[in-house]
Amino acid sequence: MARDQLLENLVRDFVGEADELVQQTTRNLLALERVKAGAEPPAGAHAEVARALHTLKGSAATLGLSEFSEVAHRLEDVYAPVLAAHAGVPAALADTLLRALDASMEWLRARAAGRDGLGLDVIVQQIAAVALSPEELTPGAPSGAEDRAKQDASGAPVAEPADPAGGWRVAMRHIVALMREVDRLRELRLRIDQRARDVEHALEGLARLGMLAQTAEPRAVLMGVRTAMARDGADLGELVEGLDDAIKEVCTLPVRTLLEPLERAVRDVCRARGKQASLHLVGGELSLDRRVLEALRGALLHLVRNAVDHGIELPEVRRAAGKAPEGTIDVRVEQQGNIAFLEVADDGGGLDAARIRETAERHSVVTRAELDRMGPAEVMQLVFRAGFTTADTVTEISGRGVGLDVVRNQIQALHGSVDVSSVPGQGTRFTLSVPTDIGTSPMLLARASGAVFGLPMLALEGVVRARQDRLHLARGQARFEHEDRVLPLFDLGALAGLRQALTPSEGQPLLVVHVRGQRAAVLVDEILHDLELAIQPLPPELSGIQAYQGAASLADGEFVMVLRPEWLVRAERRAEEVAASARRALVIDDSLTARAMHRAILESGGFTVHALPSAADAVARLRQTTYAVVVCDVAMAGMDGVAFTRLVRGHPDTRGVPVVLVSARDDAANRAAGIAAGADAYVSKKDCAAGLLLSEVSAAIARRSAG
Amino acid sequence: MKVREGANADLPGDVAEVLRVRAERLRAKPAADEEASEVWVAEFPLGDDRFALPLEALRAVLPLSLVTPVPLSPPHVVGVLRFDRRIISVLSLASLLGSPGWRQDPTVVVVVDPGWGRLAALDCEAIPRALPIPAAAVEAARAAHPAGQLVEIVTPGDRHRLNLIDLRNLLELRREGRHGA
Fold first, then answer.
1. Neighbours of A351 (CB within 10 A)
2. Percent of chain A whose pLDDT exceeds 70
3. In this structure, what DSSP letter does residue A439 have?
């Protein structure tokens, strides 16, 4: 490797090292700034600052980064009196030090990326202008032995011994590859479980035959296989768990690493705005996927700055409102399964719904008509729209209308969601949920209208059986009484656009979903089982579907769509909209893409489309739901389209439904057979390709209506 | 490898025909300069037309049965598929091209790399076949329609019209689809 190239690589490595040292120094400076007169500075903080500055100076000089080294050298000088006095750091000095470190890092990153950054001359001048009088140094308690012990005779800090355990820098792609292999093992475990269940079914089948004596030998073998598979599955499960834990160690960072820039932001905005606020972190001991943390850093910083700038009131305003002059910002982090939840809450003035409405209209974020249709919760969501700001003036901190939409985009880029709630006078709460690659989520699998869905167990309050005496129907909305509450009741099949909403039959399973105080009962056809599954984000074409937080891979390689619980409990309005749509079409085709294409064509004609893969399913469906038209493939496994048409025409309840047959068989005999069976039209695939399906469907409906 | 005379006798007629044509192409291996002036594409039918994808963008051909449908998906999305440990969208080519229909129900999907690091899959009526077309014809057609989803090329031998798909132009608009309730 050429010498220049080697040096460039070393500079790039130094960015990471310097970044860690600057972060540590920032943390220490913020702690030292808070030291009150006569109080003991945090143990070791001074020594760490001095050591970090010394290391930065030396390492930068070694790499020929003289400007950076010069800044570190000046900072050491200006810091020396504070160190000697073992005092707290005056706010003005902290400002200078923090600004200098920020600027130096910016310069270093630009240098490492081969860009031209701003010079550091101005920073050096600013540092030189700092003059601390003895009175400015708050004398601390005289202990300081620990700090001083870490300096050698010349006053330079003594380097800590290297970590005896050592370590490696590993590229993230290698870790990701390892995680994928663990995913494969997890799927293998699921497959083994599935095979064990298959063996169990085979044993049950043999037992039902009743020939116990004749089948004793194969049954004994199968029982042995079943037991061995269960053991292998359990062993593999333990192995996966161990690997998961090891990967977690490598790939995660403590959440508290987020705290330092947030504290800094609170401090800076408070100083700029004349406000008082303190930041509290709950869940800082947790470790999260470091890529997620890195990606969240900007969004959290934005929310915290906003909380101080827009949320927390000025001290005198707070006093007048009976609040403590110092506001509080709580950042709460928790992980459930492989979903990380983050919350930023302030105890400020809260969002002003009337002002949001007025601003949104004034800035043309929405029209008046749209505003009129919005409920209070939807109005709050307007703050995430591009161009929205209620700030009266543009400042360094806010008011440019570029803000929460960026936060939302950042979270959506992570396949997560962001939500806001607010109480006037009491504060605002932003809630973020983001999937992480690490870990699995316990999930309940349920079937509705032929599709299998996953529901995160953390949102499942329970599974109950429908009882007619607890069902109520008012204004088209079904409700279900559950434990002294009346819950909105939704049919999952209908919510997923697969069928018209059904009324539960006696004993049908209902999922009671609970999300942040909101509950709903969700009707499904069948509860399957619960599994630990890793939720993966959906590809971009599907990531906008609010219903899903991702997909999880099952043992057979198929995917199950994982429902977003928030979407389920807020389904009321959507259910009404779906119910209002009158023209329904049923598509029956055993080809997935044919169903998709027919759906696209019919939806373009204003139909609400339900699609089924078999004629037998359709016969059952027609007993429950009325359709304006049925579009049915002719050549299907099981019952074909001609037999289906005959069956429809033979039943008094369905004989009037228009049926349009579609087929690749474009000959007179097949056409005649279809029409003879009672089809209203027979459309070849060639006709479909020519764009005739929609007109044939409309004509068939018109003929039936007229006749 | 020894190839015995009449080795294809047991194969179904269409498979034997494909193998015969491939063998013929291999026998007529082009000269190096001729090879450089050709672009290999994966050609397949859709309705009454023939379409082609740059062969270099093709990653795999998989059976449609591996696709999981996704309720509430936009109309142009057939479902999702697992490939190389990733979830990828399977898109309806007819829907993307605004074609109202097809001749034969698609049975396979082709996994393609549009060039932005994320794969996608498209449904196909039949397994595509590799075909060389003149690079000059492709360049000329692309220059005439730089932003088009398709460029029409007439193959020199059989004078068939071939719609060469520009994957970037075709998929770019659908990349960040925002749909659903």
1. 21
2. 88
3. S
Domains along chain B with CATH numbers: 37-172 (2.40.50.180)
Residue A297, judged by CB atoms within 10 A of its CB (0-12, 13-18, 19+), counts as middle
The answer to whether the CB of A543 falls within 8 A of the CB of A412 is yes
d(CA A10, CA A692): 67
Amino acid occupying residue A105: M
Burial class (CB in 10 A: 0-12, 13-18, 19+), B20: exposed
Q: Does B71 contact chain A (CB < 8 Å)? A: yes
Residues in A touching B94 (Cβ below 8 Å): 593, 597
| CA nearest to A498 within chain B | B71
Give the residue from chain A lying closest to B85, CA to CA: A180
Four-way CATH pick for A254-435: 3.40.309.10, 3.30.1330.10, 1.20.1250.20, 3.30.565.10: 3.30.565.10
What does A144-199 look like in DSSP terms, one character per residue?
A: -HHHHHTB-TTSPBPPPPPPTT------HHHHHHHHHHHHHHHHHHHHHHHHHHHH
Which residue of chain B has the CA closest to A558?
Answer: B68
Secondary structure of A501-555 in the HEC alphabet? CCCCCCCCEEEEEEECCEEEEEECCEEEEEEEECEECCCCCCCCCCCEEEEEECC
List pLDDT tens digits, range B82-130. 887 678 999 988 888 877 666 677 778 899 988 776 789 998 888 888 8
The H or E element spanning position A675 is helix A668-677
Nearest CA in chain A to B82: A557
Partner residues linked to A536 by β-bridges: A551
B175 neighbors B162 (Cβ within 8 angstroms):
no
Q: Is B89 exposed, middle or buried (0-12, 13-18, 19+ CB in 10 A)?
A: buried
Q: Does the domain at residues A442-576 carry the CATH identifier 2.60.120.10?
A: no
Strands (E), B10-76: 38-46, 49-54, 58-63
Radius of gyration of the CA atoms of chain B, in A: 18
DSSP conformation class of A391: -
| Cβ atoms of residues A534 and A439 within 8 Å | yes
Six-digit token string for A464: 């109950």
B63 in contact with A, Cβ within 8 Å: no
Residue of A544, A604, A685 with shortest CB distance to B180: A544
Residue B116: partners with Cβ closer than 8 Å, 6 or more residues away: B168, B175
Cα–Cα separations (whole angstroms), residue A146 to A46, A77, A326, A413, B116: 10, 21, 34, 46, 55
Give A563's strand partners: A548
A541–B177 C-beta distance less than 8 A: yes
CATH architecture of A581-706: 3-Layer(aba) Sandwich (3.40)
Cross-chain CB nearest to B94 (options A574, A595, A597): A597
pLDDT at A198: 84
Q: Number of A:B CB contacts under 8 A?
A: 147
**What 3-state class would DSSP assign to B165?**
strand
Pick among B46, B70, B76, B119 to test the A interface (most A CBs inside 10 A)? B70
Instruction: Report the alpha-carbon distance of residue A288 to residue A282 in Å, rounded.
Output: 14
For A90-139, what is each residue's pLDDT tens digit? 888 888 888 889 888 988 888 888 877 678 888 888 888 776 666 666 55
Question: Inter-chain contact B180–A538, Cβ cutoff 8 Å?
Answer: no
d(Cα A192, Cα A187) in Å, to the nearest integer?
A: 9
CATH code for the domain defined by A3-149:
1.20.120.160
Q: Report the distance separating Cα B75 and Cα B78, nearest Å.
A: 7
Chain B partners within 8 Å of A542 (Cβ): 70, 73-74, 77, 80, 89, 177, 179
Tell me the per-residue pLDDT of B124-172, one tens digit each, with 9 for 90 and over.
888 888 888 888 877 877 777 766 777 777 766 667 788 888 888 788 7
